[in-house]
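Running low. Invent one:
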Amino acid sequence: MVKLFRIATVKVTGKKYLVNYLDFRTNKAICWGEVTKIEGLKTWHDKPEKFSLNEVELGPEQVKTSAFLSQLFQQTVDGLKEKGAKVVSDRTSKG
């Protein structure tokens, strides 16, 4: 069985996040933070992000592939570069 992950896209910035859960009582999407490290399909994330459901567009659900994770990691790198940080990215034998 293929596991699908819900994606939230922030309407203002276009940034994408993996959704951890939706809290309809507070009208929030709780998402995993920016992807900081990838090993195969295993990921590490920055602190969780919380968005109003009005701020994000949900879906479509997506399979967690290395290409999609690379896109999320590149989003993190681009964001750091925009803030003026010097970014060094290494690719290991594990990915």
Notes: The chain has one helix and nine strands. The mean pLDDT is 90. The first helix runs from residue 66 to 82. The beta strands are 4-5, 7-10, 16-23, 28-31, 35-39, 42-45, 49-52, 56-58, 62-63.
